[in-house]
Design a protein that fits this description.
The chain is α+β, with helices and mostly antiparallel strands. The protein is built from 15 helices and 16 strands. It starts with a helix and ends with a helix.
């Protein structure tokens, strides 16, 4: 059913109902013997007959005012304006029909419905906000159907502006309804169909090609693409210097911004063929690759250096070269930064340490009692007898120490138990200078020897 045939359908329906009303008006005998009030029935029938006539009248005015007149003036009326005019006409004609047929004072009815109107206004405030925002957009002539607009992350072609929102067709052919209040409130970017809308594309070209040559090729390639207007000629410029290529920009203008993706693709294709014809390549990313060189590590002594350190430790000097080599194989190397605690007073331990690089501070009750340097050792009593640490040892500098544990010394003493006496003599000689203890070297040696034998179960 065409629009004109639908228009005349309402006219025919209205005339038929009016004819029925006229017939019953002149033949009221049909109401005889019924409980129906003829006057009331005829008024209701007349009002029902007026409804299709009102629809016919409003649509006829819409057709004449917006279709015929707009076509002659070559101006397309906004859809929202047409809907507003129709709504006003419907309200006026319905009010007139009610007042004329039922003899009701419409003004008084509206006055008694003020509270209801206020409640409806609060309930529909968002809808009304969208409506008035749409009216404001039309009054400002912000955009028209066919224009491209961008609001937030949404971009598309305007298809229609309705009561609630604006209908957009995105470049992916999706339909999006954006509320009019959002368009009126947020930043809106408009690309009108009647405007020359600019677009910029970037192309990377090899550094070895002169810019003058490249610019001429790019302009010629872009100018011949369908959709690029010649009202403002396309041009190219040097955009910047990248890591592996010169960045060029192609700026062109178009009338229909909805064709931007297609035009961009066609320009890129034309540029590729133009560069190939001229022997110019689009460069691949270039990176300089350097072989990784690890920084110099903190000096880690080898087994030969550890063996040399062991041979200089007097309490271990009685051991054979083979025994010292066995201990060196099992020794562990540790690195401490300045200020770190290596051993703590009162802590249990079963190893001794030899300073290989740097210096350490021996402290008792936070007072320094000795400063040890490379070649010195500490903690030998914990290694030989298992007694608790007698002092705190703090790294005075960044220090490298070699740790010799009980597990490394035990096999040697168990295979050669006679070495325990020699080692105890060296320890007693080292500790014999402690006059404050009033203990002879002989007594010290016997004490140390007994503890060594008990500790290693010799």
């Amino acid at each position: 059913m065409t629009r004109r045939s639908r228009l005349f359908f309402w006219l025919i329906l209205g005339l038929a109902l009016l004819g029925l009303d006229w017939f019953l008006e002149h033949h009221r005998g049909y109401f005889a013997g019924t409980q129906l009030d003829p006057v009331r029935v005829l008024r209701i029938l007349l009002f029902v007959a007026c409804l299709p006539m009102i629809i016919f009248a409003v649509r006829l005015v819409d057709l004449l005012a917006f279709d015929v007149a707009s076509r002659r003036k070559r101006v397309q009326a906004p859809l929202l304006l047409r809907e507003l005019v129709q709504a006003v006409l419907y309200a006026v004609l319905l009010a007139w029909a009610v007042s004329a047929i039922f003899e009701k004072n419409v003004t008084a009815v509206l006055a008694t419905g003020t509270v209801v109107a206020a409640i409806l206004g609060l309930a529909l405030q968002e809808t009304l906000g969208n409506l008035f925002s749409g009216i404001a957009l039309h009054l400002d002539d912000t955009f028209s159907p066919g224009d491209v607009i961008r609001s937030g992350d949404t971009i598309g072609v305007v298809e229609a502006v309705r009561w609630r929102g604006t209908r957009l067709r995105t470049f992916n052919n999706n339909l999006v309804i954006v509320p009019n209040s959002m368009l009126a409130r947020d930043r809106l970017e408009v690309f009108p169909r009647a405007n020359l809308n600019a677009r910029v594309l970037q192309v990377q070209i090899d550094y070895h090609v002169p810019p003058a040559t490249v610019l001429e090729i790019l302009v010629q390639a872009a100018s011949n693409v369908d959709g690029v207007t010649h009202d403002i000629p396309a041009f190219a410029r040097v955009g910047g210097f990248g890591d592996s290529a010169v960045s060029y920009e192609i700026k062109y203008h178009m009338h229909d911004y909805s064709q931007r993706d297609r035009i961009d693709a066609d320009i890129r294709k034309a540029v590729w063929y133009a560069l190939q014809r001229n022997g110019i390549s689009i460069p691949f990313p270039i990176r300089s690759v350097h072989r990784y060189v690890a920084p110099e590590p903190v000096h880690q002594p080898g087994r030969a250096e550890i063996l040399d350190r062991l041979s200089r430790v007097d309490v271990l000097s009685p051991l054979s070269r083979e025994a010292q080599r066995s201990i060196a194989e099992a020794a562990r190397v540790h690195v401490f930064s300045r200020g770190e605690t290596i051993i703590t007073h009162g802590a249990a331990g079963d190893s001794m340490f030899i300073v290989h690089e740097g210096a350490v501070s021996v402290r008792v009750d936070n007072a320094e009692v000795a400063a040890l340097k490379a070649g010195d050792f500490f903690g030998e009593m914990a290694l030989l007898t298992g007694e608790r640490r007698a002092a705190d040892v703090i790294a005075a500098t960044d220090v490298v120490v070699v740790e010799i544990a009980k597990d490394a010394l035990a096999p040697v003493l168990q295979n050669h138990p006679e070495l325990a006496a020699v080692i105890s003599a060296k320890v007693a000689e080292r500790r014999g200078s402690l006059d404050s203890r009033r203990v002879t070297v002989q007594e010290e040696q016997e004490s140390v020897l007994s503890r060594i034998r008990a500790y290693f179960r010799l």
